[in-house]
């Protein structure tokens, strides 16, 4: 089919222009709400053109900097390109781009790291300033002027609803069979006018399959034909495999104890190789008729559908490898009744996450012996990516599981430390910690009981005696045995790493 | 009326016995779910008798220790008495008793500090072990055998539903006009069987006015006539007054900006004198038809009802002064259509808190320059009280405000520090920080912007230059300018206090 046929409505077709023309409609100081979530469904052409415009303008002494709001992470040609030319004044709510990260950590770019379920609400509340432009990729425009969402939904509804001006990219690379896979809920409101979200199972459809946007708000429509950023899939290594096996054993025990059904409960799985290893294990495990209520559909989730283990997955975006994308695009129609893509305010909504009883599985950077978790910062100061949706799921879910290899940097860093250098998930929100060494079920334990269990089960043997020594001395240090700390040593592992390149003494 | 007439059902009346007889039915190792929330509605007689039994038994070489679960804090004759005789093996989910606190910090008692909205769910999930006994105060028993709840609801529904054996205390001191004030929602379930909670306004009644319990589970009924622990009300001091004024100015500005309606949004107010000062200010402020969706009804809330400013308050318990209790008990019937008392799993429920758009105002111990908040620990190790419901409201509410005087201990302690010694509310969950010095609105700010604002607006002038110096040097220290820290100094204010008795250099 012709790329042009993706724009079946005349009022939108009239706005067709080049990426360069569209980029020229974005001005200095604009807040721009862009599509994009984990490298899926982000605009492919206008950001690059905008980066060029920014460079040209800077050369004439007229710097252009924008506020850039997205769903979550995007891709090098968006986050990377705009950060590289210093075009971003403020970035939110999540990024994972190396260039952006470097700019943020150098102090050249402001970054607000926000719970992904909170973003829509914050913008509706006008807490973050005015939204000037929405720049959103869609898979097509229907004859009626409805927008067929792309491979992620993210905050697109909010951007389209609230922006003064809208720029659309219509990407003919996206499968047309995405049509009907989305569920856009238009029932949200600001308090005091909110009502219950009528969703009681992961596969429920409570909205419409299209995004809405009045044509007269649209200032430009740009045609593209470009793939999403692909995330290479790595087969689980031995460490990830051991972590996954511990999780599977735990699920088995919980089912035996009658605490969760044999279909488990809706799964949420963070992005990464370790969560993917858990999904791979589930493919061969004893649990059937699984469901998922999660942010992102990774390769492992697609494989679970293919194997018949997973009945339905609700998410807000894909994050697939090239192989998996090909498989998906060739069979999108078959996946349509097993996949629902929602706005991130619904995929991560506290109300729904609590109601469904989601089992949250997220990666972390480090945990301390009391079960506080750091998901975002290296050595307290440097941002890595961001909290993403992990807080939405960990706080309000049924079971909150955090996973990591017990060491990093060839054993120089212990992922279990006396005190984390930054807290994203407090002791109150962490039920289970898993490393390749073992699994620590922290439910029903006091802080010092938790500490002993985490040291015994999760710490790497090289670090276990030093952690035990810390705990023992903290118990004797005298200022309180509820959460015993030796404060002037609590962060010494991190400072030692900064000084010597290793946490080892 | 005779005390006896409070027990109008014969099957229950048959179980009448003494507190000593009832206490004898609680054995070593039992997990006991007790009523009680902020010193209201706790059992008055059996715990004291149990403490005596524990002492006698210990003297014969047979120690008795129980797991003690409540709604929240209770009173000296419960928490204090049982802790004093070392009768509590494990305490949850909240305490504020000096004897308990000392035992926990000495390492003689295990304590799990839990989000109050999570407790019911955790017990239903059987995460905490089996519930052997429920020990619940009620205001009466109807001819049909329904239980008239007392001055708090807490987790009583869960205890009565799940315990093997039930002991009731019928307290004739409680007003009979409490009848009809409660709303006990029996629609909760375990996933995957949960449905939306049909509550869309603070005053909605979605349940029944009584607690249910089959008479054949009841092993003892004890009559009491004893007042709740009263919380003396202190008129706001100058510091509290200044904090309250800052909050009022902020509300006024938010209303002017159209971000919240002039009726505000449902208020949640933590316990304490500073929150009470805010409530007192509201009494004379420009906002009418206020509502509250909160945990606890303090004097200030009652005064807001009396003054006609507050239309309705939903809570799970009272926490009144003697004067206010008298006023309430004499006029309980008149308050009945303005007060709804609910189980704490509903008063603090993430789904409802998010839907209603609650404005959360909670006290704290300290905040750091990046907006992380410590609500629970002194110098990292010692527990003070617990997180209570602050996390339920701060995470899922519309606006999350934390308040504290800028110094403590006659100026030896700064409530604004480089890094908090314990995190209960992360940077992601804290919108506004207020001290008597000023108010820092942190929304839409990156970490280092937040730091500058908190130092400028909230820190005490004596500590401001030192904090500024810390931030400036952290910006230069080089390991990352997203959340710049000098890690080996980050907790030095706390260690200095432990060594010298002051955070001042």
From TrEMBL, chains A, B:
Domain Acetyl-CoA hydrolase/transferase C-terminal: 334-470
Residues of the Acetyl-CoA hydrolase/transferase N-terminal domain: 10-172
InterPro entries reported for this sequence: AcetylCoA_hyd_C, AcetylCoA_hyd_C_sf, ActCoA_hydro, ActCoA_hydro_N, NagB/RpiA_transferase-like, Succinate_CoA_transferase
Superkingdom classification of source: Bacteria
Keywords from the UniProt entry: Hydrolase
Gene3D superfamilies reported for this sequence: 4-hydroxybutyrate coenzyme like domains, Acetyl-CoA hydrolase/transferase C-terminal domain, Glutaconate Coenzyme A-transferase
Gene Ontology terms for molecular function: hydrolase activity
Similarity section: Belongs to the acetyl-CoA hydrolase/transferase family.
Designated name of the protein: Acetyl-CoA hydrolase/transferase family protein
Protein's organism: [Mycobacterium] crassicus
């Amino acid at each position: 089919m012709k790329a042009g046929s993706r724009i079946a409505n005349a009022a939108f077709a009239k706005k067709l222009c080049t990426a360069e023309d569209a980029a020229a409609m974005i001005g200095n100081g604009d807040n721009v709400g862009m599509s994009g979530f984990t490298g899926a469904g982000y605009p492919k052409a206008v950001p690059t053109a905008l980066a060029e415009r920014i460079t040209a303008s800077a050369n004439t002494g007229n710097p252009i900097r924008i506020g850039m709001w997205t769903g979550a992470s995007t891709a090098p040609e968006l986050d990377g390109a705009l950060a590289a030319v210093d075009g971003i004044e403020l970035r939110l709510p999540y990024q994972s781009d190396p260039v952006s990260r470097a700019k943020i950590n150098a102090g050249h770019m402001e970054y607000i790291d926000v719970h992904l379920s909170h973003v829509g609400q914050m913008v509706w509340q006008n807490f973050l300033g005015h939204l000037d432009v929405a720049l959103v990729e869609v898979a097509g425009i229907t004859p009626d002027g409805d927008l067929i969402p792309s491979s992620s939904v993210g905050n697109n509804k909010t951007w389209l609803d609230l922006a003064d001006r809208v720029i659309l990219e219509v990407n003919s690379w996206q499968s047309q069979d995405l049509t009907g896979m989305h569920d856009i809920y238009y029932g949200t409101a600001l308090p005091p006018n909110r009502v219950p979200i009528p969703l009681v199972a992961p596969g429920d459809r409570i909205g419409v399959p299209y995004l809405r946007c009045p044509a007269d708000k649209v200032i430009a429509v740009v045609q593209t034909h470009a793939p999403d950023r692909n995330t290479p899939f790595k087969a689980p290594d031995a460490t990830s495999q051991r972590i996954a096996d511990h999780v599977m054993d735990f699920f088995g025990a919980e089912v035996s104890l009658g605490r969760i059904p044999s279909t488990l409960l809706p799964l949420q799985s963070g992005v990464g190789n370790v969560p993917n290893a858990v999904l791979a294990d589930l493919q061969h495990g004893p649990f059937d008729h699984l469901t998922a209520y999660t942010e992102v559909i990774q390769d492992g989730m697609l494989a679970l559908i293919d194997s018949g283990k997973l009945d339905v997955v609700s998410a807000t975006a894909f994050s697939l490898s090239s192989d998996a994308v090909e498989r998906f695009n060739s069979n999108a129609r078959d996946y349509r009744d097993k996949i629902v893509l929602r706005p991130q305010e619904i995929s991560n909504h506290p109300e729904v996450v609590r109601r469904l009883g989601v089992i949250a599985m997220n990666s972390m950077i480090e945990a301390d012996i009391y079960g506080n978790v750091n998901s975002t910062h290296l050595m307290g100061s440097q941002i890595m990516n961001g909290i993403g949706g992990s807080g939405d799921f960990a706080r309000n879910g049924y079971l909150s599981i955090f996973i990591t290899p017990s060491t990093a940097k060839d054993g120089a860093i212990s992922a279990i430390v006396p005190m984390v250098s930054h807290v994203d998930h407090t002791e109150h929100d962490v039920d289970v910690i898993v490393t390749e060494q073992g699994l620590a079920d922290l439910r029903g334990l006091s802080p010092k009981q938790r500490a002993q269990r985490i040291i015994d089960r999760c710490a790497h043997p090289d670090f276990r005696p030093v952690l035990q020594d810390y705990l023992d001395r903290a118990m004797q240090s005298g200022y309180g045995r509820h959460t015993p700390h030796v404060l002037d040593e609590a962060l010494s592992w991190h400072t030692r790493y900064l000084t010597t390149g290793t946490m080892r003494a």
